[in-house]
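Worked example (supplementary).
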Amino acid sequence: MQKKESNKLYQKLIDKVIKVAYGDAKIVERLYIYFKALTNKEVNKILEEFKHTSNAVHNIKQEEAPEQLINAVKINTSGKRQNGFFGSSLSSAFFMFFGKRAITATVVGIALVLIVSFLVFRTLGPTHKYSQAQIELAEKQFRQSMAIVGEAFQNAEKSFSDEVMNKQVNKNLNRGYYLVNNILTGG
Amino acid sequence: MMSSAKFDYLIKQHKNKIFNYAIYMMKNQMDAEDITQEVLIRTWENINKFNFYAAKGWIMRTTHNLCVDYLRRNKRMNYKEVQIDEEYHEEITDLGLECNPEKLADKIITDTEIKEAIERLPERFKSPFVLYELQEFKYKEISRILDVPLNTVKVNILRARKQLQKELKQYAKERVK
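After joint prediction of all chains, the assembly is encoded as:
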């Protein structure tokens, strides 16, 4: 009974060793087996053996399917096939790119995000809707500011005619006329 | 037009997988070629019936079924598969210990020897083993292709590894002699 139990445990250990050797064991199992292999010579031997086989299996090169076979298939199906624009090398490139689910999903995802974000930003963009009261206020303020500017121009004109023209220009002109008259009349 | 492009793409992607799987199952190139051709023609005939992204699984399932049909038809199916029980495990484990691994490691196992050893595996071990180790399918995919439970796939792959080890040790032993 005890022997059977220990044999079962040993089988489980061997199974783990095989999984580790073939590289599909979990990290915990891997650490456990590597530790076991360090302390137990037999486990180490079995691990090395299976690793050796595993490497050999994984290094087997795949055989190429004969080209004439593929050509024969293409000829067999050519009657039903149409090779238009999309049946050219462009289509091959298309399927090379979109032939994988992950790539297609990524491209579709990006396109969806772009479309959704475009629509969202378009509707949330700046809107210029003012109320009637705001428009009236703005008009009133515009008129006031125009009145202030007009008044400033009027003041400037008045001071120009009073101060500059009368005092500075007209006075000197009168004095000039007076002198010319005196000279002409000989006074 | 799209169908042609799809088909060309699928041929490019899977022709070698189909051919290699058929070789391991049929054990000869002629039958493997016949199977490959048949699978590709069936793929073309059903191109619009299966999901393009699940084509890999569909193609391999078709390949496997055709191989099984061929073997049955040619009466080559070996029904005397190794009995799997506790003794079987013991036998393999014992063999693992009795052979000198240092000597074994010194021997270079050739591709041909390994291929022959794989070919000699019982069909129920060989199919999952080839799909998993050589064609890099996942357990789930293999389960779908072979239409067997996931755990059966795992167990059969493990048994295939043990059986293969046993076969290769036999080679090594013969060489030492």
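Two points are worth noting when inspecting this output. The CA atoms of residues 34 and 44 of chain A lie 8 Å apart. Residues 2-58 of chain A form one domain.
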